[in-house]
Design goal:
By secondary structure, the chain is α/β, with parallel strands linked by helices. The protein has one domain: 3-Layer(aba) Sandwich (Rossmann fold), CATH 3.40.50.720. The chain is built from seven helices and seven strands. The chain has helices at residues 12-23, 53-67, 90-118, 129-133, 139-159, 184-193, 202-213; strands spanning 3-7, 27-32, 43-47, 72-75, 121-126, 164-171, 224-227. A seven-stranded parallel β-sheet has the order 3-2-1-4-5-6-7, with helices on both faces. Strand 1 (3-7), helix 1 and strand 2 (27-32) form a beta-alpha-beta unit. Helix 1 packs across helix 7. It is globular, with a radius of gyration of 17 Å. Bound molecules: 1,4-dihydronicotinamide adenine dinucleotide. 1,4-dihydronicotinamide adenine dinucleotide binds at residues 7-8, 10-14, 31, 33, 49-51, 76-79, 99, 126, 128, 171, 173-174, 176-179.
């Protein structure tokens, strides 16, 4: 069975991806952060803060020694921080960059050597449409996702000759805990601004990931694929 490692797999988009990959015959390792989740069959959890490179290295080694080489890495864990750009403190900057970009950096560093020696592998990062277009009052979050996009494009060029594909999915507004601070009115406005007229579901993002991991995407690399209901074209 192929093996996928997904960060931030305890809920939301990561959880939906874990369940979809497991249903499609993958062995799934989920990295979770704080609360120990209960997972379905074929999904195993390892506690790991993705912003800590040492913990990530250990988690990737543990996953590979239990379930074999990682065929697909999904760097999904992320946090958002809202506020005026001028009010953010260095601590906000560190936390958001270390989690959203540092998580990808740490996970890719741990997984790439094995993929290169096997001459195959797929890496999928979860970005955000705000990384492409910028969001008012989410400047740090947007910058962290912009870094993810640039890293994905660079890795794709560097790792293509080793048979490794690297892409990002770039969600629009997806109905998860990340939106819990939004008012009902804000959510309704966001749904109305989305051409498809609704919020996306975590499962819809997971389906794009499953496609990118598959042979159907064998000539797709270095792309940032929008899953945004037409919000950003
Ligand atoms: P969520 O808040 O439900 O899930 C985030 C996951 O990341 C949780 O499992 C959390 O425990 C984990 N996490 C956070 N910090 C971590 C750390 N240091 N180490 C390990 N795990 C950590 O939110 P959602 O929506 O499922 O987010 C998943 C990804 O999708 C994030 O990267 C987010 O930026 C991105 N995204 C979400 C959108 C949305 O509208 N929900 C839109 C665009 C992107």
């Amino acid at each position: 069975m192929p093996h996928v490692l997904i960060s931030g797999g305890s809920r939301g988009i990561g959880r939906a991806a874990a369940e979809l990959f497991a249903k499609n015959g993958w062995l799934v390792t989920c990295l979770y952060h704080t609360k120990t989740p209960i997972f379905d069959e074929n999904i195993t959890g390892i506690r790991c803060d993705v912003s800590n490179s040492i913990l990530v290295t250990h988690a990737v080694q543990e996953a590979e020694s239990k379930f074999g080489p990682i065929d697909c890495l999904i760097s999904n864990a992320g946090i958002s921080v809202k506020g005026l750009a001028q009010d953010f403190k260095e601590n906000d900057y560190r936390k958001v960059m270390d989690t959203n970009f540092g998580g990808l950096f740490n996970l890719a560093n741990a997984a790439i050597p094995g993929m290169v020696s096997r001459k195959k592998g797929v890496i999928i990062a979860v970005s955000s449409m705000w990384g492409q277009t910028g969001a008012s009052c989410e400047a740090l979050y947007s910058a962290s996702k912009g870094a993810v996009d640039a890293y994905v494009r660079s890795l794709a060029k560097e790792l293509g000759p080793s048979g490794i594909r690297v892409n990002a999915v770039s969600p629009g507004v997806i109905n998860t805990d990340m939106l819990k601070d939004y008012s009902d009115k804000d959510l309704q406005d966001l749904a109305e601004t989305t051409p498809l007229g609704r919020l996306g579901s975590p499962e819809e993002v997971a389906k794009a990931m499953l496609f990118l991991s598959s042979d159907g995407a064998s000539f797709i690399t270095g792309q940032v694929i929008g899953v945004n209901g037409g919000f950003l074209t």
